[in-house]
Amino acid sequence: MSATVWPPISPEQLIKEEEDTLACELEWLLDLLQENLASLKSGLQECAALLAPQEPGSTLALSSLRSESVKGFVTRVGTRVVKGDINLRLSTLPPPRTLPSYPLHLQNPLLLPQLSTLLTLLNQALDIIDISTWTGDPQNASFIAGQLRLLADTIAEARETLKGGEDVVGGKWWDDAPTDDTFSPGLPKNLSFHLSIADAALLLHVRTLVPAQNPEPSITGLSLRTRLGLGPRPPIHDELDQVFHYQGEEVTVKEKVRVESQDPSLMAVMAKLSALAHAVGAWRVRVGVVMGEEDALEV
């Protein structure tokens, strides 16, 4: 099916009419986008509100599922953990005399770097929207397309921060040791306590450490006592053969326990960011198509 113009016009006039029509459509689309930017801004503000330091905060259980290795709770207020009591029963961490488990009491707040970074990214996204609305030219299609691209990249980075992993800030446990006054009593030198965010949940890793230079070296990786059956075999985990630089020393991980606790507020933030990312992506496609960008549909 083809469309024709009647009465016929010259090819040059047809091209001009097409350009004028696209210009009108683009102007209408940019006006409509300005109305929708308010909705995007509201969504980002809701995400920031969920990370605000509001009492009483979120109290989350941190307990291992099929063992007594970790039992306790923490309370998150904003980007910090402000309360926490956890008891450890690890085969490689003897408890104090007369106690059945090793107690950890949070004495000073523990900052969660991922949430601080996430809050910064949300504020940057809000600034991008304000610039698109008030500072720049809202009818400049190239400017608006650039702002939408920047907004999409910022929201994507915020989502990756909530997903976690070693590549995000605070993701490397060996570079993120609590200060000596965080717990009362202080952590033993051979114990690593690392709180992070993974898939919008609070994730705790507890590790017992030994110097990388084993005083009882063996080609099998087991001590003489273990090989003779006089001592317990070390727990199996995914970091057995790795060496880490932790607090100025080369160490290996003897025992590792992982505990996860779903945080409703962080799950809500992740859901909202996913919806915002979809909305911004759709607007990038619309603006790109009308501007005639060849890769608009690949956004």
Give the gist of this structure:
The chain is an alpha+beta fold and 299 residues long.
Describe how the helices and strands are arranged:
Blueprint: H1 11-50, E1 58-61, E2 70-77, E3 80-88, E4 102-106, E5 110-111, H2 113-135, H3 141-163, E6 183-184, E7 191-198, E8 201-211, H4 224-227, E9 243-246, E10 249-262, H5 264-291
Antiparallel strand pairs: 1-2, 2-3, 3-4, 3-5, 4-6, 7-8, 8-10, 9-10
Write up what this structure looks like.
- By secondary structure, the protein is an alpha+beta fold.
- It has helices spanning 11-50, 113-135, 141-163, 224-227, 264-291, and strands spanning 58-61, 70-77, 80-88, 102-106, 110-111, 183-184, 191-198, 201-211, 243-246, 249-262.
- Strands 1, 2, 3, 4, 5 and 6 form a 6-stranded antiparallel β-sheet that branches.
- Strand 1 (58-61) and strand 2 form a beta hairpin.
- Helix 1 packs antiparallel against helix 2, helix 1 runs antiparallel to helix 5 and helix 2 runs antiparallel to helix 3 (141-163).
- The protein is elongated and about 100 Å long.
